[in-house]
Amino acid sequence: MSVATTAGLELRATARRRRHVRLVGSAGSQRHRERAHFTRGKRQRGIALVVAITTIAILSAMLAEMHEATSTAFAVSMAERDRLQAEYMADSGLDLTRLLVAAEPRIRQLVGPMYQMLIGRPPPMLPVWNLADSILSPFCHRPGMARVTLNEDGSRNTEDGDDSEDSGFGFDAFSSAEGLEDLPGTCTIVSVAENSKININDPLYLDGDRARRSIAMQLFALIGGYQSPSPYDPLFEGEDADGQYTSRLDIVSDILDWWDPDTERSSFDPGAGTVTSAGAEDDIYQRLDDPYKVKNAPFDSLEEMRLVRGVGDDFWATFVEPRPHDPTSRILTIYGSGAVNPNEAPPAVLLARVCSFVNNQPLCTNPAEGAKFIQLLSTVRAMIPIPFFTRSADFLTFLEGRGGPQDLYPMLVGYLGPDSLLLFQPITVPAAKRRDMQGSFVTGARIIDVQVTGQVGRSSVTLDAILNFHDRWTPPPPNAGRMPGLGIFHHFRID
Fold first, then answer.
1. Is beta strand 264-269 parallel, antiparallel or unpaired with respect to 274-280?
2. Within 13 A of 471's CA, how many CA atoms are on the CB side?
């Protein structure tokens, strides 16, 4: 075979091999492309799932946040609406109470003949404020709605409502009235006359030493100063919250020093019944860890008493407010003229007021006699809840054990017997003190504390107002006028 032939054969073989390589490479590339495309498709389908899940998660979070914001805004708006309605419910109860007190003279005219038949004399001012919650119940309580009342410890109690609108006196008087079925909530009224308590503040119509002596004698008698031994002795035998030893005389003097205008310390002598001044009144307060000065101005609130030396939690719970947040349990006040209403005041307050004049008699010096007086008067009020004393002289007659068959003490003697151990020993009122003692008691109420709690849903608003109805009130200069029929606000607070 020639050389040319051999070369040709080799060229053709080489061409065939190259063609075969191209065909094999082309097939491999096609398979590689198909495999890459398949892999890319799978990868793209996985990313779509992740994107979908992420999108759903983001939308869910946005929806949850939107729902929470909307729910919060709705709850806040509902609470604001309920609070506003509760405030107006309380405000309505307060205005209705003012109207009820203003209408007391006309109510007294209606019940006057019945009282005259029972007691034998005209009625005194009727304590209609004590019945405000019952009388005004149709305006504060919708049938079937839960009602908020006050427990003895001052806490609020929610009672289930019924289907009848009861006026509180055993008959249905308002079930057919229009406009009372749309009440949004309830209101609870607690009102009390401030002259049923001992006023520790600067009295309205006493000045100087007379005012200080009057307050000192009452306060000293209230905390058991004239009794030996006294059940309150343990309160004054230990250290107070500031590490000080505070006696009865210290507390009496410090309360006087808080509101009297001078800067000298008051010194009360219970034996002589005098108040003198000696030394600086700020010394004891300057030695405290957080020193401050005596105010030398009248109390603005009862809570201000806690700034006075020796007035701690035990003193407060015993002599100021035995049941927290319950104005009916308070014994002390900062409002009024200093005269006490024997028809309204707790027996312990009456005993302290009496003993500020006749502190050397068994009723004041013997704890057993004082306990008899308190128990007897408490029992009588619980059994016959009417005002017994038309005038302050009627109360002095009761203390002296005198009077006719329709007077209280002779009635008790006839019921219990003259030798009953339940009767306290009557007192003897000195002729020189009778006029002042009679002037220290009044049978009307001119300054009244009204607390009204409006309840709508879970919202509760309490209005605390001191109403002044005193006919001797005149507006401050240069204004002129007289007391309006609905009284004036001496103090107002919203809680």
1. antiparallel
2. 3
167: which 2 tokens?
């006026």
Closest CA to 189 of 145, 144, 146, 128: 128
Whole-number average pLDDT of the chain: 82
3-state secondary structure string across 320-367:
HCCCCCCHHHCCEECCCCCCECCCCCCHHHHHHHHHCCCCCCHHHHCH
CB distance 124 to 443 below 8 Å: yes
At 216, the amino acid letter reads A
Helix 367-383 vs helix 408-416: crossing angle, to nearest 10: 90
**CB contact set of 174 (below 8 Å; sequence gap of 6+):** 138, 165, 167, 180
The single residue listed with the structure tokens 């605390």 is: 464
Instruction: Please give the share of the chain, as a percent, with pLDDT higher than 90.
Output: 22
Tallying the residues shown for the chain, one arrives at 495
- Note the pLDDT tens digit of each residue in 8-22: 666 676 766 666 556
Nearest to 449 by CA among 353, 321, 358, 342: 321
